[in-house]
Recover the amino acids of this structure.
């Protein structure tokens, strides 16, 4: 597949992409799948990404980061995924948690967690979804009850990824010590909870995903946390959460885009080499070439949207519309592209040695999480088109 000039990239970004690609390609699909199927963490790769400054490229220099932008992290995530290692933890620990703490954490909290998140020696999970709340954060029932100078957390979280490999989890809870809003509900607060805290436990959720990170139901049974665990101001959690949601969508889109590039590279190489009819490569037939060309166009559009969302976020502008649309477009393009790459390979598309079918459920998951395509459509209908709210 030929390089494209459609998505603008500075010389520095191009060098960043090349460095990540070189590092991750030494691991690639075999390493990713072996770790995933053995239920083992990709420790060696994660360590190298951290030591290379890639995980914390967007975090403040004074706290061990690279002083770059979310757009830089997006390049890292996309390049790693395109090299065969789509690591969901890059979305969770550096993108969501790192960004929220960098923006809203106290100086003590930033000094405690950001250097480790940046160099990969610490990981942080994110717990917001609940069994009865789902996408509706207004229905969160996990509570933080005042206890001395701190709080006791009680509740259940659902589909929390990677908590088994994390040093702490960023918990969204309804604060019992903050003044209720006009709705009568207690406002939300965020707490950084060490994963070895008494009363914190989790249960593995079996899923079809082939990835190193696993998902869990998390139980908070009177988990006592001190005042140093509160992120920013008590009761300001909803605003703080939104500081992490756009980075979440942008980097999730980057994983999808990386998977698309990976699949396209595999498919075009195979189509250019595979000859079953009179020695002519199958890629010479429009029935093979045109669907791949359409996938390429969709991926180019998704990558442009993702780059634009990153630009808006880094400029301090409202990036919600661009981030949501980018995630929507990238997820759809990724699943379509991976499916077409498998179809191009014929029966070999299902053979594990060809390195495509392992990623199918991950690409499919990204249509639903971290925000479902239906919720993106709700957002666009209401905020972009000005239609009445449907939820």
């Amino acid at each position: 597949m030929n390089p494209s000039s459609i998505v603008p990239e500075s010389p520095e970004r191009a060098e960043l992409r090349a460095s990540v690609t070189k590092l991750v390609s030494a691991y690639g699909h075999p390493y990713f799948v072996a770790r995933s199927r053995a239920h083992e963490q990709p420790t060696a790769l994660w360590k190298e990404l951290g030591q290379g400054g890639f995980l914390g490229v967007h975090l403040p220099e004074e706290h061990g980061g690279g002083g770059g932008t979310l757009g830089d992290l997006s390049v890292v995530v996309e390049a790693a995924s395109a090299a065969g290692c789509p690591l969901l933890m890059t979305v969770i620990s550096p993108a969501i948690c790192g960004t929220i703490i960098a923006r809203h954490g106290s100086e003590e909290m930033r000094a405690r967690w950001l250097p480790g998140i940046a160099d990969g020696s610490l990981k942080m999970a994110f717990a917001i979804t609940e069994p009865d709340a789902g996408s509706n954060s207004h229905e969160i029932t996990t509570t933080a009850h005042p206890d001395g100078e701190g709080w006791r957390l009680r509740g259940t979280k659902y589909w929390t990824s990677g908590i088994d490999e994390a040093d702490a989890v960023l918990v969204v809870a309804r604060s019992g010590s903050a003044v209720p809003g006009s709705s009568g509900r207690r406002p939300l607060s965020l707490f950084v909870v060490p994963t070895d805290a008494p009363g914190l436990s989790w249960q593995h959720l079996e899923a079809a995903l082939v990835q190193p990170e696993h998902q869990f139901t998390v139980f908070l049974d009177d988990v006592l946390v001190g005042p140093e665990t509160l992120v920013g101001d008590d009761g300001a959690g909803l605003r703080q959460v939104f500081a992490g949601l756009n980075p979440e969508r942008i980097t999730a889109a980057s994983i999808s885009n990386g998977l698309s590039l990976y699949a396209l590279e595999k498919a075009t190489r195979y189509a250019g080499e595979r000859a079953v009819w009179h020695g002519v490569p199958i890629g010479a037939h429009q029935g093979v070439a045109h669907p791949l060309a359409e996938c390429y166009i969709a991926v180019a559009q998704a990558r442009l949207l993702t780059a634009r969302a990153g630009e808006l976020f880094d400029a301090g502008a409202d990036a919600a519309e661009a981030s949501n649309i980018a995630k929507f477009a990238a997820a759809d393009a990724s699943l379509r592209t991976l499916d077409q790459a498998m179809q191009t390979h014929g029966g070999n598309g299902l053979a594990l040695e060809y390195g495509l079918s392992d990623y199918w459920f991950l690409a499919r998951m990204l249509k639903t999480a971290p925000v479902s395509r239906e919720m993106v459509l709700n957002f666009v209908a209401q905020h972009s088109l000005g239609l009445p709210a449907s939820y």
Observations:
- The longest strand covers residues 150-161.
